[in-house]
Design a protein that fits this description.
Helix content: 25-40%
Number of helices: 14
Distance between the termini: 33 Å
Oligomer: single chain
Shape: globular
Structural class: alpha+beta
Length: 433
């Protein structure tokens, strides 16, 4: 699942296979002190390579976080946990569960590292609870001059406001303190629902559920909806065999084969979509959060995701469906729709506005440009903000219009990294030179 650096001649590749880089060298520091001692080359820390943009690519020093992992401290009075930046979310979730604790909300996969996921603004879906980064209470940051900066609401608050989703532009995050709570149970209700009904009842579905999301299958009028709400129990996990059949065999195995067929013979895709949209039947189960929020994703894809104002999501989806219907495009991957409340992080996709996310995917190895370009045109017409780790073509000029606090971030970057030690082509494009 992780990115590989030791491919041919030291080439690093991301998970989606669409980005590669050849760093001058790689280091795997075991401590913050080791990290602070790096020389004058440009530096980039990389997580598990789950970004589809070149946000982690560098021709300088590539810092791999394998040794900077594990829990540093659990403070039961403050209800926080401090983890090393390279800790995979999967390990964090499992360790917290053993301690009877949990994050409040999380994304739908947990292969990423804590700092990679937060630095790019990874999120799940929530009416009241926001992204993983919004749950951060403190950060340890190694800045360009090698000094270690601790940030929280009280300490270096202006850095804290930006560095929770820092894009790797302000320094290297070495530790993160998250707010946690006593582990709880969620009841998930998954059921098919016609797209027309989801769109007409969207506000209601959003308001009545703590976590609402749905997948729409292009070329069909069908969706699969998922509602997660806190539950008093009892625990009622998906039975093992059923779970394997639905989550592994259907959602990964059969879906992989369907995508191979679709890639080879695009004309079959609408028929396959009709079958796919009906393959998963309704189910209800109750379990601890990470077992409900996250699921394995073994079918490789590329992805673009935009946050639009929540009030605009239904209109944007109707436009997306009309575009697909008249375009002759063949799209074999469902479109994923989630929400987030407004937060106070400078460059969060939900900064200052209640948001809804629309994610479009294409199977790895199929041409995606025409679909993504047409979708992006719709999203940007609604002042959409692209996910920092997913494909998009926007630049600093665009971001300065859709992020009211954009200049605040770039000014902080000028102060913390005047010589651009953490620069790469992606940051030059999205933040300006």
């Amino acid at each position: 699942m992780s990115s590989t650096a030791n491919g041919k001649n030291g080439t690093w590749r991301n998970w989606g296979g669409n980005v590669s880089a050849r760093p001058a060298r790689e280091v795997t520091p075991a401590s913050v002190d080791e990290l602070a001692a790096e020389d004058g080359l440009r530096v980039k820390a990389v997580g598990s390579g789950h970004s589809f943009t070149s946000i982690a690519a560098t021709d300088g020093v590539l810092i791999r976080p394998q040794l900077l992992t594990g829990i540093r401290d659990i403070d039961r009075e403050a209800m926080t946990v401090t983890v090393e930046a390279g800790t995979p979310l999967k390990r964090l979730n499992m360790a917290l569960a053993r301690e009877g604790l949990s994050l409040t909300n999380m994304g739908d996969i947990m292969e990423q590292t804590a700092s990679g996921a937060t630095s790019t603004g990874t999120h799940g879906t929530g009416r009241d609870s926001a992204s993983i980064a919004a749950q951060i209470k403190g950060l340890e940051l190694v800045t360009a001059d090698g000094s270690v900066l601790n940030c929280s609401e009280k300490e270096n608050p202006e850095v804290f406001a930006a560095a929770r989703i820092g894009l790797g532009a302000l320094g290297i995050v070495t530790a993160i303190t998250f707010a946690v709570e006593p582990v709880f149970l969620l009841t998930a209700r998954e059921e098919p629902m016609p797209l027309d009904r989801v769109l007409s009842d969207f506000e209601e579905l959003w308001a009545e559920n703590e976590h609402f999301e749905f997948y729409w299958f292009p070329h069909t009028g069908s969706t699969n909806t998922k509602r997660n709400n806190r539950s008093a129990g009892p625990e009622k996990p998906v039975p093992q065999l059923q779970g394997w059949f639905e989550d592994e065999f259907l959602s990964n195995g059969v879906f992989q084969v369907a995508n191979w067929v679709g890639r080879a013979v695009p004309a079959t895709i609408p028929a396959i979509a009709q079958i796919s949209s009906k393959a998963l039947s309704a189910r209800t189960y109750t379990d601890i959060p990470y077992k409900v929020f996250t699921s394995p994703r073994r079918v490789r894809f590329v992805e673009m995701e935009y946050a639009v104002p929540r009030a605009a999501v239904v209109e944007a989806l109707r436009e997306l469906k009309a575009m697909v219907d008249r375009s002759g495009l063949r799209v074999s991957f469902p479109v994923e729709v989630r929400t987030a409340p407004a937060d106070d992080i400078t460059l969060s996709t939900a900064s200052g506005r209640d948001s809804a996310y629309i994610a479009v995917h294409m199977f790895q190895g199929t041409p995606y440009q025409r679909y993504f370009t047409a979708a992006e045109r719709i999203f940007t017409a609604h002042e959409g903000r692209p996910h920092w780790g997913k494909m998009h073509t926007r630049d600093a000029e665009y971001f300065s219009r859709v992020y009211p606090r954009f200049a605040e971030f770039t000014a902080l970057r000028d102060r913390l990294d005047p010589d651009r030690r953490f620069q790469n082509d992606y940051l030059r494009r999205v933040l300006g030179a």
